[in-house]
């Protein structure tokens, strides 16, 4: 992100923070007693170069993936639930009379993420699921919309979701908004959220933190997970 853009955003955040605090926004939802990691669309079509959905590769390789590796190590050590979310479609013909893409293909190129091309929608091998972790296939922006996610989380006693992935302005944001609507405490893991558009991550994380969930660092989240793991041992 350019320094000029970041300076403009910081100025906007400063002014917005004054307004929000005066009106009672930016409260804390806090960590709960049993967290799950919900990793959104960290699949090859988003994490690797050369695709319409490819995100900022510098941030992906140097922040998001390493941050995810730290989180996964902590979650696995504490034996806590991990859900990897990806997106793909079975009927990708835009002229078909019926398609699982719905109307979304009229806005963005979801037709390229063909279910038949498993490599595209497979979770990035650097953070690949291990035995005991669940991979959820979604069709819309939110990981909750039309999926089994809320039911799985409740069945496992989860009250807090640590949300990572891409993109900040769409699938991550919608997952967080639906998460708090469904009664879970959303925590956006700052270094593990990306996008394609400059400034999108900073702005969306600021706005999420004001209205829908708490933005916390990877290190703060790892400390929390380790504390949970110690209480369960």
Low-confidence stretches: none
Radius of gyration: 18 Å
| SSE string | HEHHEHEHEHEHEH
Shape: globular
Largest sheet: 6 strands, parallel
Quick recap of the structure?
The protein has 233 residues and is of the alpha/beta class. It has eight helices and six strands. The protein is 41% helix and 16% strand.
Describe this structure in words.
The protein has 233 residues and is α/β, with parallel strands linked by helices. The chain has helices at residues 3-22, 44-47, 57-78, 118-121, 149-155, 171-181, 200-211, 218-232; strands at 35-40, 82-87, 134-138, 160-166, 185-194, 214-216.
What's the helix and strand layout?
Elements (H helix, E strand, L loop, with lengths): L2 H20 L12 E6 L3 H4 L9 H22 L3 E6 L30 H4 L12 E5 L10 H7 L4 E7 L4 H11 L3 E10 L5 H12 L2 E3 L1 H15 L1
Parallel strand pairs: 1-2, 1-4, 2-3, 4-5, 5-6
What features would you highlight for this structure?
6 strands, alpha/beta, six-stranded parallel β-sheet, 233 residues
């Amino acid at each position: 992100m350019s320094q000029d853009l970041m300076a403009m955003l910081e100025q906007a955040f400063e002014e917005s923070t004054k307004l929000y605090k005066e009106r009672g926004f930016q409260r804390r939802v806090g960590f709960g007693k049993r967290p799950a990691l919900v990793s959104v669309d960290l699949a090859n079509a988003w994490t690797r170069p050369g695709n319409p959905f490819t995100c900022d590769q510098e941030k992906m390789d140097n922040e998001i993936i390493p941050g995810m590796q730290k989180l996964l190590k902590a979650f696995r050590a504490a034996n806590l639930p991990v859900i990897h979310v990806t997106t793909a479609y079975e009927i990708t013909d835009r002229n078909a009379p019926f398609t699982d893409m719905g109307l979304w293909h009229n806005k963005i190129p979801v037709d390229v993420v063909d279910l038949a091309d498993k490599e595209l929608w497979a979770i990035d091998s650097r953070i690949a699921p291990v035995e005991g972790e669940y991979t959820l296939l979604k069709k819309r922006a939110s990981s909750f919309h039309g999926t089994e996610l809320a039911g799985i989380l409740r069945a496992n006693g989860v009250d807090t979701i640590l949300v990572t992935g891409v993109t900040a302005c769409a699938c991550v944001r919608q997952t967080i908004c639906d998460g708090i609507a469904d009664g879970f405490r959303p925590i956006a893991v700052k270094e593990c959220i990306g996008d394609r558009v400059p400034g999108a991550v900073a702005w969306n994380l600021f706005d999420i933190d004001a209205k829908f969930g708490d933005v916390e660092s990877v290190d703060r989240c790892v400390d929390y997970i380790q504390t949970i793991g110690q209480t369960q041992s």
